[in-house]
What we know:
Elements: H1 9-18, H2 23-30, H3 36-42, H4 50-60
Helix pairs in contact: 2-3
Amino acid sequence: MIKHPVVDLNLIKQIRNQKNISIEEMSTAMGYKGYQGYYYKENGVRKMSAEDIAKISSILAVPIDKLFFKQ
Length: 71
């Protein structure tokens, strides 16, 4: 069975908080009109796309591979 990479949502939230970036600021930086667009993704209600992960990596200034669980 092939293991697919899984986004570490808790790590993303932790890094965002360490950098003092609010949900509202993150949503705006990702192009959403309201905070819910990003909030639902960070909390696992909606799935993140590859484009979302690339944007988050850029905004948080961390390598993309750091945003995934290590297997």
